Fold this protein.
Amino acid sequence: MATVAKLLPYELWEIDAVEGWLDDMASQGLIFTHNSGGQFYFREGEPQKLRHRLDFREKHWSHSKERRQFFEDCGWEYLCYVDDRTDLYRTARPDTVEIHTDESILEEIMGKYVRRQKIVLLVCQILLLLTLAYVVWKCCTYGFFPSLLTNGFWDFFTIPLWLFIAVFGDIRLWRSFRDIKRRALLERSYHTREREQKRRREQRIDFIVRLVIVVLLALDLLQPNQYAAEHLPWEGSGYEGYSIHQVLPEDAGDDQRTDLFCWNYPAARRLFQDEKTADGKWNYEVKIYETESDWLARCYAREQARLAGAQSITVPGHDTAWFFIGTPVSQRHRYEAPDTQNLLLLRGNVVIEIAYLGSADLRSAAETMG
């Protein structure tokens, strides 16, 4: 005969509903045989009128041969254990003495379910709050737009996805906690086919959501490192004017790099160069962002200027410019990052950041830039 596997539509603590569901399956010709891996297995046969009962034990794994023998002597057939403290029995005789689990044991078991679910719910709430706190802290410290410019879709998608998982999990856990608490007060919940269909719909929705989450996480983890640095010659790049030899020629070192490091992101192209000053140290850095739109460049530049407390200045050939002395916003995670002279320039859809650690006056040099 064919074997049919079904997922239990109820939680195990919904005792009356689980028992009623197994009885209903038997009336449809699906006779329970065993459970494994969360699935309940049935043998197809003739419809039968059977009674199924769950017996809860006070202690975990406290299987008692005497207790089982007592129920079998009373006419109950032992089927299997459902979990570490629950046995399942069945009988076809209508006159078989009913199994009555001590209500105090039920109250204790349900109380443990409530406490366990409360702890899980509390942990999820804490994780959700920590995630939100991290997002707020990162936006307040580094700004929102740097991540938008320098991350791909999947990188930027991780935190919203985690927030969705946390909120979705909290909602499911809260509903489960509420239902367990009701049952702990001995409010019975019974099986009906309409209620089973409703639970099946909820299970399908849960499965689809979890599958989508797993697929998205897998895609995120399997994404190759497609943003490896490339090299772009200084000459002909259009940004030679931001070299230390052009901005601060009196403090330029003898060595000069011939290439820019270049990363191509979906929303922007990022260029980077560091150069030596006259003392032979790498004290002059240039970062350039070529964004997809003027609006994006303007938002990024204004946000960085606001976070740095920069002062607006006028630099020829640029829409807006700012200057400040201190740690660059992008370097705030470094404990010993030195204070530098910083120049922030906006020109259409291009943002140029210059950080200089030297004695020359970067602001004066910028205001006379031609």
In short: The mean pLDDT is 82. The longest strand covers residues 268-275. The chain has three domains: 3-91, 103-222, 230-367.
